[in-house]
Amino acid sequence: xxxxxxxxxxxxxxxxxxxxxxxxxxxxxxxxxxxxxxxxxxxxxxxxxxxxxxxxxxxxxxxxxxxxxxxxxxxxxxxxxxxxxxxxxxxxxxxxxxxxxxxxxxxxxxxxxxxxxxxxxxxxxxxxxxxxxxxxxxxxxxxxxxxxxxxxxxxxxxxxxxxxxxxxxxxxxxxxxxxxxxxxxxxxxxxxxxxxxxxxxxxxxxxxxxxxxxxxxxxxxxxxxxxxxxxxxxxxxxxxxxxxxxxxxxxxxxxxxxxxxxxxxxxxxxxxxxxxxxxxxxxxxxxxxxxxxxxxxxxxxxxxxxxxxxxxxxxxxxxxxxxxxxxxxxxxxxxxxxxxxxxxxxxxxxxxxxxxxxxxxxxxxxxxxxxxxxxxxxxxxxxxxxxxxxxxxxxxxxxxxx
Length: 402
Description:
Layout: H1 3-7, E1 10-17, E2 19-23, E3 28-30, E4 35-36, E5 40-44, E6 51-59, E7 66-69, E8 72-74, H2 79-97, E9 111-118, H3 128-144, H4 151-155, E10 169-173, E11 184-189, E12 197-203, H5 213-223, H6 225-248, H7 251-271, H8 281-297, E13 302-306, E14 312-317, H9 321-331, H10 338-341, E15 342-344, H11 354-360, E16 371-375, E17 382-383
Parallel strand pairs: 7-9, 15-16
Antiparallel strand pairs: 1-6, 1-17, 2-5, 3-4, 5-10, 6-9, 7-8, 10-11, 12-14, 12-16, 13-14
Helix pairs in contact: 2-3, 6-7
């Protein structure tokens, strides 16, 4: 083998999804290992609309590990990045020491260059760290020839990242062990299970959230009695009910549990001392609109959930999407025309009756919502086979974007 080809980096690119929790994770019992105080359940969103793409290159010519996020070089010594790198390399060495013949062990000592981009705003309350760490771990595992259970490693990057290792409906089982070996994600149902389910992300602001979730949840654990009650007395039965609602495709049960759990999560933020406010006046208006809409029809057609930020995530069934989107456009009038306002899966236009407008009876909030991402449940991480999609060039450095 020529000296030159020995130095050519081994390059792998993968993509991973965002997930939205419907039973929320908030609070750790172990900061370092990222072990939660309660189990949680999420829906993986489709990568056609929301994803992180990561390229990892390894080469013996690299002097050190390096990482670029959304075009900017970041600090690779970040503790959570180091945890993921260390764990994957440890498993790769273990495979080599166990004498796995299928493993090319020459690359185990090589340094890596990592380049990652999101196709959505980072840190705007869309779980960017979840997709990011899931993608990092999945790609590193491919580069180093590591197989098997990876959600426990992704968890050490960002708790909710373990749920982005699977598609469809996913639970993160909190586990009991001190070493966290049983705190893992598990698929409840695949993304094909409930094809009528639709998800609308109402992006209220693409700014960074005022208090990051890591520091926010720590303060909650230290100061909120409600959080302790929630983890011990509320979530266990809610998890069982939610899994059953998903398996039965019972939208009413799924929707009501989703809204109640979102509200309780934000109540624990309010019960934190000093209190944390993630919801904005726009968020509160969306909550009112959903309840009035459901009341008008005498059934639960739409549900909301909010993470640690002001963006609403709406769950509904396919047949209700056009009318509900029209309602959002009416009560949150925007400067952008329909094409720019709705991104993702196409939405048919619909008209809304005067009767419905009056039943909602809210004051419109111009420019309250920047845009809507229309999506559905989707698959877990995957390898991107097309080499033109690599984010790193053949030299192992970020490709120059024109």
